[in-house]
């Protein structure tokens, strides 16, 4: 596996869509920073698989909601080489609640991880990639959700609105840095088979949704990763500020 594409940071790269992105990124020639918060074993397993294939990867613990941790993640990337890609994938969902049941800690944390984390990481990436700061350009891919189009009423208004912020952030940052060599795009997954549903206290969610999906199946993390890698690559060189929906034909779910 030749290291020809520079360094790629995948936040939340230890499991699910992030793990698939880390693995495919390494296959495509990136040295990968596999960020995680808690599950060190999963992060190290992803790195071990990359090393077995002859690639380069390092697991870096850090909460994207914490600016000091984000600096640490980017410093780890600097030690590997030139940063060329960032995937703002880390995200989380709380168990289903109505707004009148949500406490302040939930609301704050939901936006800190899903929105501020993306802002903090993108800010560090721009400082390194932008020609305005002496960089050579690069690509940022944010991860939104079909929830941003539905609103999450009765279940996770906080998560859906946070992902709506990511849709808007993508458009705005893309225009801000378009002339500085940086492309910023968005992937909007639908229902994808990962552990996020069980982590949110609803392990049966994917199975329940399948009958409402045109393809009658959930997506895989690898199918999302392929869209992400396309947006990172020069194959998408004239695309910025755009969203690729990976939802099996239906972005809007009840
Ligand atoms: P997942 O399987 O639950 O994995 C989440 C990953 O994010 C893990 O690697 C986790 O690290 C990491 N993470 C969580 N909070 C973090 C934080 N504060 N700082 C750094 N890393 C953190 O999730 P997934 O389903 O792959 O989701 C990935 C992204 O896709 C999320 O942004 C999610 O909102 C979005 N998405 C998912 C679906 C879906 O159906 N799965 C649909 C639409 C959008 P640890 O291993 O250390 O816990």
Assigned CATH superfamily: NAD(P)-binding Rossmann-like Domain
Ligands present: NADP nicotinamide-adenine-dinucleotide phosphate
Q: What is the H-and-E element order? A: EHEHEHEHEHHEHHHE
**Widest sheet, order of strands:** 3-2-1-4-5-6-7
Number of strands: 7
CATH class, named Alpha Beta
Largest sheet: 7 strands, parallel
Q: Outline the low-pLDDT stretches.
A: none
Query: Residue-averaged pLDDT, rounded?
Result: 96
What is the strand content? Answer: 15-25%
| Structural class by helix and strand composition | alpha/beta
Put simply, the count of helices is 9
Domain module count? 1
**Rg over C-alpha atoms, rounded to the nearest angstrom:** 17 Å
How would you explain this protein's 3D organization?
With 254 residues, the chain is an alpha/beta fold. It has one domain (7-246): NAD(P)-binding Rossmann-like Domain (Rossmann fold, 3-Layer(aba) Sandwich). The protein is 44% helix and 15% strand. The chain contains 9 helices and 7 strands; from the N terminus they run E-H-E-H-E-H-E-H-E-H-H-E-H-H-H-E. The chain has a 7-stranded parallel β-sheet with strand order 3-2-1-4-5-6-7, sandwiched between helices. Strand 2, helix 2 and strand 3 form a beta-alpha-beta unit. Helix 1 (16-27) packs parallel to helix 2 (40-52) and helix 1 crosses helix 9 (221-232). The chain is globular. Residues 11-12, 14-18, 35-39, 42, 63-65, 89-92, 113, 117, 143, 145, 189, 191-192, 194-196, 199 line the site of NADP nicotinamide-adenine-dinucleotide phosphate. NADP nicotinamide-adenine-dinucleotide phosphate binds at residues 11-12, 14-18, 35-39, 42, 63-65, 89-92, 113, 117, 143, 145, 189, 191-192, 194-196, 199.
């Amino acid at each position: 596996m030749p290291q020809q594409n520079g360094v790629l940071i995948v936040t939340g790269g230890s499991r699910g869509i992030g793990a698939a992105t880390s693995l495919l990124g390494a296959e495509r020639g990136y040295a990968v920073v596999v960020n995680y918060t808690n599950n060190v074993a999963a992060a190290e397993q992803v790195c071990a698989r990359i090393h077995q294939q002859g690639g380069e990867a390092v697991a870096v613990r850090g909460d994207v909601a914490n600016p000091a941790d984000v600096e640490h993640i980017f410093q780890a990337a600097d030690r590997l080489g030139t940063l060329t890609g960032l995937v703002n994938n880390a995200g989380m969902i709380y168990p289903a609640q109505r707004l009148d049941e949500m406490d302040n800690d939930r609301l704050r944390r939901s936006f800190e991880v899903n929105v501020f984390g993306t802002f903090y990481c993108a800010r560090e990436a721009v400082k390194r990639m932008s020609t305005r700061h002496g960089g050579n350009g690069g690509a940022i891919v944010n991860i939104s959700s079909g929830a941003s189009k539905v609103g999450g009423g009765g279940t996770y208004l906080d998560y859906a609105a946070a992902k709506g912020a990511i849709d808007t952030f993508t458009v705005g940052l893309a225009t801000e840095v378009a002339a500085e060599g940086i492309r910023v795009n968005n992937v909007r997954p639908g229902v994808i088979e990962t552990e996020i549903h069980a982590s949110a206290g609803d392990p049966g969610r994917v199975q329940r949704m399948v009958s409402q999906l045109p393809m009658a199946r959930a997506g895989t993390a690898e199918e999302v990763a392929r869209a992400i890698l396309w947006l990172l690559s020069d194959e998408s060189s004239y695309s910025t500020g755009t969203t690729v929906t990976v939802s099996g034909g239906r972005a809007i779910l009840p």
